[in-house]
Amino acid sequence: MSPRNRSPSGPLKQPASVTLSRLLPYLWPRENSGLRWRVVLVLLVLVGGELATLAVPMAYSRVVDRLSHPGSLAMAPVALILGYGLIRLVSAALTNLRA
C-alpha cells in the first residue's frame, strides 16, 4: 500500500474511477431502459437549472442597462423585467425538481 492513498484515519482511499466503475451498473443498467431515461432526465434538469441560474444575472444586467438609458423604449425594460421574473421562476422550479 502506498502512503499517499492512505488517509490519516487509516483506511485505503480508492480513486474516483474505481468508485464510478462500481456504481455504473446501478446508474445505467442494461436491462432497465426506464431507469436510463430517468437518469437522462435528471441530468437535463440539472443542466437546465444551472443554465437558468447563470442566465438570471445576465438578464438583470440587461434590465439595468436598459433602464439607465433615458431614450430607450419604455416597453423594453418592462419586457426585460418580466423576462427576468420568468427566468427566476424557471430557476426555482428546476431547483425544486432537482430536490
Q: What report would you give on this structure?
A:
3% of the residues are buried. Among the domains are: 32 residues; 26 residues. The protein starts with 15 loop residues before the first helix and ends with a helix. The longest helix is centred in the middle third of the chain and has 36 residues. It is an all-alpha fold. The protein contains 3 helices and no strands.
Give the topology:
Layout lengths: L15 H12 L5 H36 L6 H24 L1
Helix pairs in contact: 2-3
Please give a quick description of this structure:
By secondary structure, the protein is mainly α. It is 73% helix and 0% strand.
By secondary-structure content and strand pairing, the structural class works out as mainly alpha
> What Rg do the Cα atoms give?
23 Å
- Cα-to-Cα separation, first versus last residue: 39 Å
Mean pLDDT: 78
Give the helix tally: 3
Order of helices and strands: HHH
- Tally of strands: 0
Helical percent range? over 70%
- Our estimate of the beta-strand percent is under 5%
Low-confidence stretches: none
Q: Describe the biggest sheet?
A: none
Which outline best applies? elongated
Protein name: ABC transmembrane type-1 domain-containing protein
Transmembrane segments: 39-60, 72-94
Subcellular location: Cell membrane
GO molecular function: ATP binding
